[in-house]
Amino acid sequence: xxxxxxxxxxxxxxxxxxxxxxxxxxxxxxxxxxxxxxxxxxxxxxxxxxxxxxxxxxxxxxxxxxxxxxxxxxxxxxxxxxxxxxxxxxxxxxxxxxxxxxxxxxxxxxxxxxxxxxxxxxxxxxxxxxxxxxxxxxxxxxxxxxxxxxxxxxxxxxxxxxxxxxxxxxxxxxxxxxxxxxxxxxxxxxxxxxxxxxxxxxxxxxxxxxxxxxxxxxxxxxxxxxx
Length: 227
Known about the structure:
The protein is an alpha+beta fold. The protein is about 45% helix and about 20% strand.
């Protein structure tokens, strides 16, 4: 699954269906039925699925179910796929409103913040102080030979200074189910666990950032793989 959007419910009838409804819910735009929603319980949440609606407002046996969201029963929090969130948040009487545009962005932002606060823009907070892998050594060598010069030219023509702040760079290409469920149940625990793991496996990558920044600030003498 690529991503979910956190939403707040705007209509009481929709909230009642999320809380207690058993039958499928048909979503209409004006007089036209556009999709049908169904709930499947997976404690502590309900998974939401949608199916296409035919021109006559009914479903057909050729229609399949598509996952489209999660309702956190205890917290009464709704998460929708971007396609369904557009349907439910449009119109004069929308069923929901977007609260957080991207769960992936929210999770990544929190993890990056935790990593950057832990490193605190200080290379001494890293457990390695020397580049040892051939990949990292080659990347630094190429930067010293060409990258630093090109960056300096770019900064000159843009009229800007090189950034001095360490950046974590944690990303999620998609949203795994296990990660999302862990986020629902213990967001702080997920953030700390992922931040610790990200720091553990990226020590040399982080060190490279500090080495490159030192180069851009005046060059490195002696062994360029060390501080």
